[in-house]
Design goal:
mainly beta; 11 strands; 124 residues; 4-stranded antiparallel sheet
Amino acid sequence: VQLQASGGGLVQAGGSLRLSCVASGRTSSWYAMGWFRQAPGKEREVVAATMYSDHTTYYLESVKGRFTISRDNAKNTVYLQMNNLKPEDTAVYYCVAQTSFSGSYHSPSDFDFWGQGTLVTVSS
């Protein structure tokens, strides 16, 4: 399993970015994919996740209404559309996959594969 994330960069507050994560492997049998982020000096936190079983999604409270997670099964790709970005969104964003059932998607330990991370910097 490999996860290749891209799309990070520098943007001004109020701007938008779209992160992409291309996955290799038998994605049809996975349980969930999502995005975590880690800001300097802070713990990793789940930003958004999409569950394959029932297509439900989860969002961190502070990004609700601004971020949207989606996936293209034909391309084995998960996206994170980020609008109205704020300086506090600055972090390294990681694409994650849950290939073994965890029953949860809030903790880094719930996901067994991680991409390399892409840096998002939002200037004020």
